[in-house]
Amino acid sequence: MSTRARLRSLAGLGARFLTVGAISTLIEIGVFNLLYLAFGWDPVAAKIVASLVALVNAYFGNREWTFRHRDRRGRIAEVVLFLLVNLFCTLLGAAIVWAGVEAAQLLLGRTVGPFIVNAVNLVSIAVVVLVRFWLYHSLVFRTSPRDEAPRADAQADADAGRGAR
Question: Minimal CA–CA distance to 28: which of 11, 8, 9, 48?
Answer without folding.
Answer: 48
